[in-house]
Structure formats: C-alpha cells, structure tokens
C-alpha cells in the first residue's frame, strides 16, 4: 500500500514540476519580449539589391498614438507651410517658424497662439536671419544664418543672451542643444572653392560633429581625412533623432550611427552599403548617382530601427529588429525629384487611415515623434483618402481629423499631426 502511495506521490510531484516549468517558459518568453535589447553595437547589411522587396510594414509597428494640433490663425502668427516651415516641439509648447522670419510660440494642448519670439533686426537682441529653432523646457534657441550666433530666449519672447558656438571649416551648421549645457553642431553641404589653399584649409578642418559649451569653447570634434575634390555631397539637413534620452545622428561619411553626449561620441550602428554607398566627394552631381542609397530619415524604438532611403527613383522603408537582427524591407512607389530624395511616401497608415504622400518633417524632439503638416492645399486629397473604409487602430482619430478638416479655411495655419513613437 505504501509502495503504491509513494508512486502516486512521485507522479504528482513530476506533474507539478512539469506545469511549473511550462509556466516558467511562458513567463520567460513574455519577459524576453518586454526586455530592452542588451547589445550596444549592430551591423546592418544594406549592400543587397532591394528591388521588389515587399515585407509587411505598418505605421502601428512604430507609432503608438497620434494627436492633432490646429494652430491658431491670426495676422500675428501666419505659417507659410511646406518646405519653408520649421518646428520644434516640447511637452507644453510648439515653436513654429517660417525660414528667415520671426518664430512663434503656440500652446501644444490647444494650438493657441501665445507670443512671438524676438524680432527681426540688427540690434543685439534681434534676430537678423533665423534658420534653425530648438525649444527645450522653457527656453528657445534660435540660430542666425550669417553670424551663426545662437540667441537664447524665454518662451514668453524675452531675450536672455547670445552665444557664438565654436566653428570649423566655414560651413553652414545644424545645431541641437543638450542639457542646456552643450551645443551639438553638424555641417551641411559644402561647396569647395577652386583655390587650392582654401580647399586644403576646409578639408583639414572638416568634421562630422562638433561639441562646444555655451561659451563657445570646443569640447571635442569628430574629424575625417577626406580626398580634396570639387564638392562634398553632404546632407542638406543632417539626420538626427533622440532615443533613450540621447541625441543620435547618422554620419554619411563612414555610414555609422552615433549617440552624442557632452563628453563622448558612441558608435551604435554600422550600415554596410557596399556597392550602394553614395560617394562622399564628387566633382559633379549627375543622374548616375540615383543608383546609390541616399538615406533620408531614421526613427528608433526600443525594439526596432527604421530606415527610409531613396534609390533608383524609388523609396524604401526598412525595419531592423534589435532582438534577432533581421531586416525587413518594403519598396514604395516611384518618387519625384532629380535625386529622388524629396518625397517619402511613408509607412502604410493603420493609425488614423490617411497614407501621407508628403514629407515627414525632420523633427528632433526628446519625446521622439513624427510630425506631419496638413495644409489647405491637400485637404480634398486627405478627405478622399479618409473616406475609404480601412482597418485602423484609432477610428476616433480619423473622425477627429475629418472634423478639423471640415472646419479648416483656405487661409488657415496648418494642422499638425504628431505621431508618438513607441518607446
């Protein structure tokens, strides 16, 4: 009797252990999906021919929600829209600027116009020709075209001070402020002069990132040894974004993605372009260069890195999985532009239903968002698209966008669609 009882006990204990093991595996699997990848450096192979690639990619893979902000319209705060408009978004405010004109501050929650930032002029507190704007917390940083000075204002428009960042090479800059302590600068496209000494002076001082403090003192520079030639085909607007509270940027010279801090630069991804690599320097820009990959934009979440590029008159969207290091690629419709880099059709939109055929604004904000500017000139197109029945995640957002479009008048400021990326 006791023997049978012992057998039954052993059988029971084994059954319990099997159940616990199965539960543990399920729990472990669930936890592994939720864990952040621990690897800090990845290599991504982009050397293949991606023609005809048709992997399934959706906007909901990268975006968790969307908010719409209808910017108030008045004679004091008119936004031209299109390629001439520049935005910076913080938790509470939206800063909008027409290139070379006075910036405006709007309330993010309501879109209400609050005030103008500074004034156009040549006085010590004025902005002569603003080209970049960056809002952070309660401060606004504006860069001038000619002097390269960065003027700092409070969000109520009060002038605080001017700073002159460290400079090298005589090139135009794109800048970002981190921690209210450091200015991160990237060069834009450089046309090399014919004078040999001037060429050498620029090339000997060429850099991909320059970090200085708010007093203009250089902290460190990432330099490159380049062949002296007629022209450096740089990025008109450097590709940069925030991830995990760090500023990241793509260096098109060595095809590496770096994270930048106040005292160091950290390589995170290497994009192996192979035969698809865009030549760094060239004497002439011709149509033959459409065969190379021209990276347009990068977005990043905890699990994925998304790449948008133009090649052979088509746009490509790619998703790199940080966990298993696989790459999905989706070929888009043919796109316009001499170098096929002006229009990205974007991910199929299963968030609110409209597949935007206009550019994503190159927005650098710490919340990690994609910004779409909806103007009066494409209202009918959007309404037609939204009228098509689709399987979308947020049908209530579709109705909200339709309502805003119905209320929009021809002279109104844009509606901003802010798509929040998954963390």
Question: Can you offer a commentary on this structure?
Answer:
Residues 1-8, 10-33 and 337-344 have low confidence and may be disordered. It is globular, with a radius of gyration of 25 Å. The protein is built from four helices and 27 strands. 30% of the residues are buried. It is of the alpha+beta class and 423 residues long. It has a five-stranded mixed beta sheet with strand order 1-20-19-18-17, with no helix packed on it. The termini are far apart. Helix content is 15%, strand content 36%.
Short description:
The protein is α+β, with helices and mostly antiparallel strands and 423 residues long. The protein has helices spanning 2-34, 196-204, 379-386, 395-407; strands at residues 42-45, 63-70, 85-89, 93-98, 104-107, 113-116, 130-136, 139-144, 150-154, 159-163, 173-178, 182-187, 190-191, 207-213, 218-223, 231-232, 240-243, 246-251, 256-260, 265-272, 281-282, 294-300, 304-311, 314-321, 327-334, 369-374, 415-421.
List keywords for this structure.
36% strand; 27 strands; disordered N terminus; 5-stranded mixed sheet; alpha+beta; single chain; 423 residues
Instruction: State the helicity in percent bands.
Output: 10-25%
Q: What's the number of helices? A: 4
Q: Strand percentage, roughly?
A: 35-45%
Query: Rg, please?
Result: 25 Å
State the shape: globular
- Main sheet, how many strands, which sense, barrel? 5 strands, mixed
Task: Please tell me the overall pLDDT.
Answer: 80
Total strand count, please?
27
- Structural class of the secondary elements? alpha+beta
